[in-house]
Amino acid sequence: MSACIAAGNTVVHKPAQVSPLTALKFAELATKAGFPPGVINVLTGTGGSIGQALADHPKVRKLGFTGSTPVGKTIMTSCAKSNLKKCSLELGGKSPLIIFKDVDINTVARKTCDAVFFNKGENCIAAGRIFIEESIHDQLIARIVEIASKMVIGPPLDRKTDHGPQNHLAHLKSLEKFVENAVKDGAKVAFGGKRLDRKGLYFYPTVLTHIDDNNFAADEESFGPIMCVSTFKDVDEVIERANRTEYGLAGGVFSKDTNLALRVARRIKAGTIFVNTYQKTDVAAPFGGFKQSGFGKDMGEEALSEYLQTKTVTMEY
Questions:
Q1: pLDDT digits (tens, 9 = 90+) for 87-125
Q2: Would you tell me which of 30, 70, 251, 297 could form a disulfide with 286, CB atoms 3.0–4.6 Å apart?
Q3: Of residues 109, 96, 130, the one with CA closest to residue 249
Q4: How many CB atoms lie within 10 A of CB 56?
Q5: 3-38 pLDDT, tens per residue?
Q6: Cβ contacts of 280 within 8 Å, gap of 6 or more
Q7: Which residues have C-beta within 8 Å of that of residue 296, sequence separation ≥ 6?
Q8: Residue 259 class from Cβ within 10 Å (0-12 exposed, 13-18 middle, 19+ buried)?
Q9: Any idea what the CATH number is for the domain that residue 33 is in?
Q10: Catalytic choice (28, 90, 301, 316)
Q11: Where would I find the Aldehyde dehydrogenase domain in this sequence (predicted)?
């Protein structure tokens, strides 16, 4: 919303139906900060009703959507059919993280857990597939499992908590199904893989190994705390495998060889690449995906152009 407002527009925000409170609190704080009535508006409800109405409305001239790729395609169609409104789409991802053998195991194990388990995996740029160079696979997985097993699982407002509950019950059940399908296709559960036996929508931080390229989990996004691990031997081979997905939102490279890391970063087909870090974004850096992860930028100077119209005036005098 910041780019939209900074460009001089009013905004109608439709949050996800299962998590409206943050948007409503934001609107409340904006009012207290002095925003005039009508600049920031919040509509809660289902995507099929409220979201569809916004996509179809003839007075809406620009629509930005964050969500799944199938819904994004529906919205894009509605934008075209209604009044050909401009749209930007931030959609699904299966972001590859490639880890070379020269890394420090302890440091990279922690960063890899952060790349996958941050916000319980409910994060569009989460590292959806981990490629570990074969010679360090066992050592790195052992350290990752050790870290995952020590994560404190509990209420999100408790400062001691490392790992909170999932967003809603249907999503929790989809994570159980994801693990089940991955195991059917040959994956092995190194840690987790199930919900906790206690009240609440808690799912263990999960590590799946032996994910080959034909496994269900190699292509599908879980949007949850599920680490999907594969191995590799050759640089060109792993880049080709990393780019095989239809998504292109983000990716990462871990290596002490800066030249190697930057060469790989250049060849990964994704809008945001992290080198020796992950999840670090900046409001000044443009953010948006390639391929079926959508188009348009959410941050940086480029985001302003998403909410502006360029006009040419020619005058003779």
A1: 999 999 999 999 999 999 999 999 999 999 999 999 999
A2: 297
A3: 96
A4: 15
A5: 999 999 999 999 999 999 999 999 999 999 999 999
A6: 274
A7: 64, 87, 88, 89, 90, 288, 306
A8: exposed
A9: 3.40.605.10
A10: 90
A11: 3-313
Task: Tell me the per-residue pLDDT of 165-191, one tens digit each, with 9 for 90 and over.
Answer: 999 999 999 999 999 999 999 999 999
Annotate 198-235 with three-state secondary structure: CCCCCECCEEEECCCCCCHHHHCCCCCCEEEEEEECCH
Q: Are 191 and 145 spatial neighbours (Cβ–Cβ below 8 Å)?
A: yes
Asked if residue 76 and residue 15 are part of one domain, the reply reads yes
Q: Does residue 90 carry a catalytic annotation?
A: yes
Burial class (CB in 10 A: 0-12, 13-18, 19+), 315: exposed
Residues in the chain: 317
Reduced to 3 states (helix: H, G, I; strand: E, B; else coil), residue 131 is strand
Give residue 70's domain range.
1-91+286-306
> Model-level pTM greater than 0.90?
yes
CA-to-CA distance for 206 and 176, rounded, in angstroms?
A: 11
The number of distinct structural domains making up the chain is: 2
Contact between 180 and 208 (Cβ < 8 Å): no
